[in-house]
Write a structure and sequence with these properties.
Keywords: Immunoglobulin domain, Membrane, Signal, Transmembrane, Transmembrane helix. Helix content is 27%, strand content 32%. By secondary structure, it is α+β, with helices and mostly antiparallel strands. Strands 10, 11, 13, 14 and 15 form a 5-stranded antiparallel β-sheet that branches. The structure holds 2-acetamido-2-deoxy-beta-D-glucopyranose (5 copies).
Length: 252
């Protein structure tokens, strides 16, 4: 009986130890203030930010009751924080993780695949910023101008999309495209890419001319073959109709 209970006891102890060493996580939106309570319940505490040269966040203050106050957080405040009693190094370290939620990071691998009058914009995401992406937005305009940006429909591209078609472009023209992601905190930074559409009289157009000529030649060849074949058939039929008579004549 004891032997059976022991493993369960160990498991419970193990779970409790995991629970105790669990890192408490603080999620906070960029631009908000954050107060982190020191679990030691002491007012004489020292806060340390791990992996920082000065071990202190820039806009942080230790409050009278020992809590740490982070003002107007940004990505820089992401990280592990610990508090301990002042001048006591024997305490177990308790870690608190601060995770700052932001607008989506810029899209990566944004590429344009242009044709003569249309183009395909393709992108990849590099994280959501902490909140799911609500939609993507893409726009374009003539390159090297201050023209108004032209929206690419639909205005709000579904969050599972990774590409969009752009229609009504002019051939042999350089355009500037930009695309970005939006989550509930707002718009991510825009990624701009230049791309030139193909000219009408490029090799492709030449290939089309060639295709037409090749087609005409092929049709001609087929028609000629058919005519020759039917002529041959007629000749053979004519021969077949005549041969027996010839033979008959010869054998008789
Ligand atoms: C953050 O704290 C500062 C100083 O206490 C205050 O002026 C500001 O209004 C606070 N911001 C928010 C978003 O609560
Ligand atoms: C510490 O004080 C701040 C205000 O000064 C308060 O917002 C916070 O709740 C306090 N924390 C504790 C653990 O009492
Ligand atoms: C993706 O985001 C990480 C930071 O979260 C950054 O270090 C990395 O450079 C980004 N990748 C690209 C391709 O920009
Ligand atoms: C797209 O995101 C914007 C946030 O800028 C939001 O207002 C809009 O409702 C979203 N559209 C769709 C279709 O989700
Ligand atoms: C594209 O336009 C440039 C001038 O902008 C011109 O020199 C070039 O010949 C054009 N190419 C084609 C294939 O139309």
């Amino acid at each position: 009986m004891y032997i059976e209970r022991e493993p369960i006891l160990y498991l419970l102890l193990f779970l409790i130890s995991i629970k105790c060493s669990e890192i408490k996580q603080y999620y906070v939106d960029r631009g908000k203030n954050l107060t982190i309570k020191c679990p030691l319940d002491h007012s004489d505490v020292m806060w340390v930010r791990e992996g920082r040269e000065n071990h202190q966040a820039s806009r942080s203050t230790v409050l009278k009751n020992g809590s740490l106050f982070l003002e107007t957080v940004d990505e820089e405040d992401n990280g592990l924080y610990t508090c301990s009693r002042e001048n006591v190094v024997t305490d177990d370290k308790v870690y608190m993780k601060v995770i700052v939620r932001t607008v989506p990071p810029p899209l990566v691998n944004v590429r344009i695949f242009p044709s003569t009058i249309l183009a395909v914009i393709v992108w990849e995401v590099n994280g959501t910023g902490g909140y799911p992406i609500m939609n993507f937005t893409a726009q374009y305009r003539l390159a090297y101008t201050d023209n108004k940006w032209i929206p690419i429909l639909p205005n709000h591209i579904m969050p599972n999309s990774r590409q969009i078609d752009v229609y009504g472009l002019h051939p042999n023209t350089t355009y500037e495209f930009r695309v970005w992601a939006t989550n509930q905190l707002g718009r991510g930074r825009k990624t701009n890419v230049l791309s030139t559409t193909k000219g009408v009289f490029t090799e492709e157009a030449g290939a089309e001319d060639f295709d037409t000529r090749a087609w005409a030649v092929a049709v001609g060849v087929v028609m000629g073959t058919l005519i020759l074949l039917s002529m041959g058939m007629c000749f053979l039929l004519y021969q077949e109709c005549r041969l027996p008579t010839d033979f008959q004549i010869r054998f008789q």
